C-alpha cells in the first residue's frame, strides 16, 4: 500500500460512522497492509494469547441468538480478525463463518420484511467485502432499498460515496 493509499485509508476510516462499517474497513485495510508487510519478517512480540471468549463477546453472542443481525455480524468479524473495537480474542475462522452466515441470512430475511436497518447492514457487508466476497451490485441494491425505505444512514452513505445519483 502506498503512502497515498495509507492516507486514503485513514480518511475512509474516519468517515466510517458506525461500528460495522469501521470493522469492515479495518479488515480491508489489514488485508492490504499485510500484503505489503509480508516481505519483512515481523518482530517477535512476547504477549499472552488473547482469550477465547470475553464478557463483551458473550453478550453479543446472546444478542445474536435473540435476533440481532448487527451483533451476529460483529461476532463474526471479531472471530475473523481476532478483535473488535480494540477488544482481543482468539481467531476462529469456523466460528466467524457461522456467525457471519447467520447474520447475513437473518438480515436478508428482515430486509425483505421491510427492516431497512438490516438492509443497510447487509448492503455494507456485500459492498465492502473483506469478510465475505464483494458483490457490488447486490450491496448497492440493499443500500438503495434501505435509503428508499427512509434509513438516513444508508442515504448518507450513498451520498458520501457518490452513488446516490444511481438511484
The top-level CATH class is Mainly Alpha
Number of domains as seen in the coordinates: 1
Rg value: 17 Å
Shape: globular
Report the mean per-residue pLDDT as an integer.
78
Order of helices and strands: HHHHEEHHHH
Helix content: 55-70%
Strand content bin: under 5%
Supply the helix-strand structural class: mainly alpha
Describe it.
By secondary structure, the protein is mainly alpha-helical. The protein has helices at 3-15, 19-37, 55-65, 69-81, 93-112, 116-128, 136-148, 152-161; strands spanning 83-84, 87-88. It has a single domain (3-32, 50-166), classed as Serine Threonine Protein Phosphatase 5, Tetratricopeptide repeat, CATH 1.25.40. Helices cover 67% and strands 2% of the residues. The protein has a two-stranded antiparallel sheet with strand order 1-2. A hairpin with a 2-residue loop joins strand 1 (83-84) and strand 2 (87-88). Helix 2 (19-37) runs parallel beside helix 4 and helix 7 (136-148) packs across helix 8 (152-161). The chain starts with a helix and ends in a 6-residue tail after the last helix.
Task: Summarize the SSE layout with pairings.
Elements: H1 3-15, H2 19-37, H3 55-65, H4 69-81, E1 83-84, E2 87-88, H5 93-112, H6 116-128, H7 136-148, H8 152-161
Antiparallel strand pairs: 1-2
Helix pairs in contact: 1-2, 2-4, 2-6, 3-4, 4-5, 5-6, 6-7, 7-8
Amino acid at each position: 500500500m502506498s503512502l497515498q493509499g495509507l492516507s486514503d485509508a485513514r480518511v475512509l476510516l474516519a468517515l466510517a460512522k458506525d461500528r460495522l462499517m469501521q470493522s469492515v474497513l479495518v479488515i480491508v485495510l489489514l488485508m492490504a497492509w499485510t500484503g505489503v508487510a509480508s516481505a519483512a519478517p515481523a518482530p517477535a512480540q512476547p504477549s499472552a494469547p488473547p482469550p477465547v471468549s470475553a464478557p463483551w463477546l458473550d453478550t453479543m453472542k446472546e444478542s445474536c441468538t435473540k435476533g440481532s443481525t448487527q451483533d451476529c455480524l460483529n461476532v463474526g468479524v471479531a472471530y475473523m480478525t481476532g478483535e473488535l473495537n480494540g477488544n482481543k480474542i482468539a481467531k476462529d475462522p469456523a466460528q466467524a463463518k457461522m456467525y457471519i452466515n447467520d447474520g447475513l441470512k437473518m438480515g436478508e430475511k428482515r430486509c425483505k420484511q421491510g427492516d431497512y436497518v438490516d438492509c443497510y447492514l447487509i448492503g455494507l457487508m456485500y459492498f465492502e467485502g473483506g469478510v465475505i466476497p464483494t458483490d457490488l451490485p447486490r450491496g448497492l441494491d440493499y443500500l438503495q432499498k434501505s435509503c428508499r425505505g427512509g434509513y438516513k444512514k444508508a442515504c448518507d452513505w450513498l451520498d458520501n460515496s457518490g452513488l446516490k445519483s444511481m438511484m
